[in-house]
Amino acid sequence: MNVQEYLTHEISLFSSIITEQLRSTPPYLRGRKVYGFVTGSGDSFIAAKMLELLTNYRLVAKDPYELRLNLPALKGGYIVGISVKGRTKEVIRAVKSLKERGWLSIALTSELTSPLAKSVDEVIKLYYGGGELPIGVGNFVSSVSAVAALSGANVSGTLIKAKILGSVRKVLEGNDLVLIGDPPGYLAGEFISLKLSEIFCRPSRVLKIEQFLHAPIYSLQPSSTILFLGNDVKVSETYKILKELNNDVAHLGTSSKDPFSSFLSYIYTVLQELAREAGTRNISKPCFMTRKFLLERTTPVIYG
């Protein structure tokens, strides 16, 4: 299975993964006066930040390494650890450290016998643990759907067709790509940026709309390509301004007020373009797998 085939297959599973994960995950945090942290690495950290958003920041997303080095003095909160295979070393360490201080620990993982699952008070099983290639698409959709259900927020989980302005294809292929969004758009941008790194080894920048306007906007070059993601008026207005400057810009928005559904629609739309490009370039495996020195040396640092 090459990269285009893999992505196309994973995209086809979106609706079934979302439906099943929302159905099978209890709305554990609904109505509870909870506070605490949620942590994860890579794709899982984006899922953590989605839980932060959907709980109105009652659970704060923290990098597991930073959390472990700066443990909170408070006791009695919740710590949620997200790891698809349950083997990410720093997630396990952070969760264990807070559990030892009396925090209620919850794991979201597809592996019920994993080190993470064995170290917590409660386990929520991810419906989909991943496909043939280690790019992380369907399993990410499973993770982010699980946190949506866990939050107890009112989400539809419906894939809504994104409104597209400009050429998303041309923008994504740029060598100086900037992704800018409102809260759900920014999170989608972070996921897209990770996939660009994994599949094509292509660098990109991801910025929140307010922060972008306060200085990075002036660092744009004529060669910069910009993808705006979000329904916020500020996002739309900034897109129009930069379009007037003749930069290659595109904008994805939706008609939905549900941040979860908007977030999923942006990812769904962009992944289709990435699958097309992978097919055009005849990519057999994701780029990161060809960087053998880095892969072999960093894997033990991540997983122990």
Structure description:
- With 304 residues, the chain is of the alpha/beta class.
- The protein folds into two domains: 3-151, Glucose-6-phosphate isomerase like protein, domain 1 (Rossmann fold); 163-287, Glucose-6-phosphate isomerase like protein, domain 1 (Rossmann fold), CATH 3.40.50.
- It is built from 13 helices and ten strands.
- The chain has a five-stranded parallel β-sheet with strand order 2-1-3-4-5, sandwiched between helices.
- It is globular and about 55 Å long.
- The two termini are 29 Å apart.
- The mean pLDDT is 94.
Brief characterization of the structure:
The chain has 304 residues and is an alpha/beta fold.
Features:
Rossmann fold; 13 helices; alpha/beta; 304 residues; 2 domains; five-stranded mixed sheet
